Amino acid sequence: MSNITKLNPWAFPHCVEDGAGGFEQFAGMTLRDYFAGQALAGELAYGVGGRSPKWVAGKSYAIADAMLAHRATNPLPETQTVSIEQNP
Predict the structure, then answer these.
(1) pLDDT at position 73, please?
(2) Are 68 and 35 a contacting pair, CB within 8 Å?
């Protein structure tokens, strides 16, 4: 499920030179997928106690959804906005 929104944007969009003077764009993964992957890594680090992969995946996405919900209601103040500059 991609469901790209302001609250679930692409996590790692980037461009790659195509060798013909142009660029090819890649969206990367969604922020939800990134958060779920981080939660999954944490779960696996402590063992899953015989739980099924489906259960572990569901828990990982539930944690990611909670993180997105918290992020939506607790945005960074404007003074903490980070700008990223491209290297020349």
Answers:
(1) 87
(2) yes
Tokens 């939660």 correspond to 39
Tokens standing for 45? 């680090």
Six token digits for residue 6: 């302001």
Q: Which amino acid is at 62?
A: A
Instruction: Please name which of 68, 42, 75 lies closest in space to residue 56, comparing C-alpha atoms.
Output: 42
Pairing of strands 14-17, 23-26: antiparallel
Give tens-digit pLDDT for 20-79. 877 777 777 888 889 999 999 998 998 888 899 999 999 999 999 999 999 888 876 665
